[in-house]
Protein 1
Amino acid sequence: MKDSFFELLSPALERLDGGYAGLPDAALAPPGMEQAAAVLAETAERLHDNYPYFHPLYAGQMLKPPHPVARAAYAMAMRLNPNNHALDGGRASSRMEVEAVRAIAGMFGWAEFLGHLTSGGTFANLEALWVAGLMAPGKKVVASEQAHYTHSRISAVLKLPYAGVKTDGRGRMDLTALEATLSKGDVGTVVATLGTTAVGAVDPLDGILELRKKYGFRLHVDAAYGGYFCLASNLAPEAVRAFERIGEADSIVVDPHKHGLQPYGCGCILFRDPGMGRWYKHDSPYTYFTSQELHLGEISLECSRAGASAVALWATQRLLPLERGGEFAQGLEAGREAALRLHHLLASDPQFMERFIPGPEPELDIVVWGVRAGTLAVASRQAQGIFDRAAEGGLHLALANLPARFFAGANWRDACDDSKVTCLRSVLMKPEHLRWIGEIGERLLSACGTR
Ligand SMILES: Cc1ncc(COP(=O)(O)O)c(C=O)c1O
């Protein structure tokens, strides 16, 4: 397997070192170097106990290999190990962060905004709900029952009341249920998820915005997974309508370490109103002396943050700009097309239909399907068995525990309105997945014992 990482890294590192060539030799001698190669060989052995996340036959959870340019830029930045908390710690990398975040905000149509990178989606959402709680003290946060569990946990940390809102049969927030909750008058913030974790459902943002006119709440969009899909040109009309209005939210989270081709941890929080910076105000007797410019540490809750994340993101966006029709957008479109094909196979090919019940038609690039069986318990057990056998045969899927009502046409005898079933799930994040759907289907059938 050819890895272009080293070819990219070596000349770039030489170039970087050239910038520091005038320094007197410091005879740097990190301890333990005699054993380092042996320890790294052992480390490589230990890493084998991972699924092959970089390969298209890994089609399970949300894991996408970082682009080689992101890995090389990250590794190069490690020579300096900048800290984007303050300009003293990462002057160039802080500027790169500002530029990279501006490009992400631009994707949502925002020129004026406040934003920065975070360690991931959880921390980015934490900042959004923290500000939301300060704007509406004591009021409730609501999100769909399919929203990431981080929202209820963060609300508990922030001591904000929280409620889940029912979803429709495709996992999207149900507007009638939302309105019933809003009419009680105690909601401060609605979280809309554009791309739920389990099935990639896109909440009906246009409908939620209509309700905002009537009930006046703060609207946070968790687009940690789905945000970049606003660049894709092959979404269904309902999802398009939601993404078209994302810029009307008060805050948005998007994770470059999910679909942005970045190493962990790289999340991003954006606020539409730059004035939200006032909530971050604090005194720091140690850090902010070398410049009059705003430091990223003054507008983020985390202090030390990897400047290398910003460097990697900046380099990736320089290579693959966030534009509709560009190579980056085409990669997302390929994953979505792969998901549609797999769903089609499950829904229309008799070999699959006799075994499985497809879940909702994918709105992004995530497919779920249940197992045909007499009862939920048997269907769930068989899903687990297929998952295990597929892995033995080299195909790595995921499992999800989902409402049985997501599987229209299933006749599990014991299913009722709120019962759940364990089903199979595949996140087709890699553009290469498109060419591998046939192979994935073959291996799935083999795992059922029909090959
Ligand atoms: C929609 C959504 N929000 C938030 C998160 C949490 O993000 P992270 O794992 O980067 O903290 C996830 C993770 O999968 C997610 O899918």
Protein 2
Amino acid sequence: MKITFWGAAKTVTGSCHLLEHGSLRFLLDCGLFQGHDEARNRQDFPFDPEGIDYVVLSHAHLDHCGMIPRLVREGFRGQVISTPPTAAIAKHILLDAAHLQEEEAERHARRAARRGEPPPAPLFDVGDVLEALDHFSLRPGYGEWVSLGEGVRIRFHDAGHVLGSAMVEVSWDGGSLVFSGDLGSRGRPIVRDPEPAPKADYLLCEGTYGDRPHKSFQESFVEFRDAVREVLQGGGNVLIPSFALERTQEVLYVLFLLWREGDLPKRTEIVLDSPLASATTRVFRRYADWFDEEGRKLFREPVNPFSFPALRIVRSVEESKALNHAGGGHVIIAGSGMCTGGRIVHHLRHQIWKEENGVVFVGYQARGTLGREIVEGAKKVRILGEEVAVRARIWTINGFSAHADREELLGWISAASPSKGLFLVHGEERALESLAGGLKAKGLSPVIPDPGDSVAL
Ligand SMILES: [Zn+2]
């Protein structure tokens, strides 16, 4: 077996690695680069898409599945293997991404036309996504072996990161490997805790938070409650830029608990203003038996985190725009999570310059995004071509993270303790270096591969 590390070696987005064994060639993830690394999406694939037999997909985040439509357009004829919830969620995530790509291409086309240049094509469009979805044809549950040929088989284990997320165990004649995908944090609502890594010769592990602890979910819950209450009691609106998958559902879960306990001012209206998050929330409802025990119990009730009197789900653009002129008392959850597009951008433009309002960040903000600028304390930001003052109060609450933190990674990796090789992938360089330091202190020998490095396993 030979592995070539692509994508997520030394970057936090664009997860993708190539495995080759005999005539079999398959990918672990095929993700999009985001933020700072975006330009890499337009480079040629470093392998021939036609020669790839399978994509084994760990979960439905765009930085893990977002290049599949382009892979299909460029000749991939194989099958995508994912859990059933991952396939269902990826459909919405990819369609939404295609719409954004098309919009962006249109904007650039107008500019290109003014310069007398040919219009740029979107990275992929809705047609490419529809075609790609036909390839999501193998949907095993956790623990079910799938044979790929050449004596190679794979199975998924619960990674506890987002609904349906998986780590991948690969087994072949004379060897085995585990790919962590993105590893979840323990004790979070809805998702189950990550499983321990199965014993394997080699481990490929992410290190997004390899250099940092998070606060516990409980501490973050209190911080979140205090922030939201403070803004609402002062007559302002709370904006929550949120990832459509998992984070939004967790935020709804927390707001539901606050509402149920009477912790929010009366007449607070919680507004979910994200067509994508609404769609993924519907998928969550459908796959409620994949939740942890507490989640399953809660969601059996008719009044639950996805359906309660204080919650309004906004559908039309008109209804969304009307919020720009609404008074205080609203908690508005909208995407995208890093403020790089979607309805949150309009809400920020109309609300962030008012000091009574608040913006509560509950997710990772990559370098080069509007979200990162705001979190880092910019006094003015450019939003949709206009300079806007940042006067609203800004909170960053990191305990909602869907990623294991440094201590959790150290514990999980050392318990796995692979016998032949440990590779750290998928994290900013300093996070991976720091994690490697911690692992060396525990007697392990981690390697941080460069993109394009190959190793015979
Ligand atoms: Zn992820």
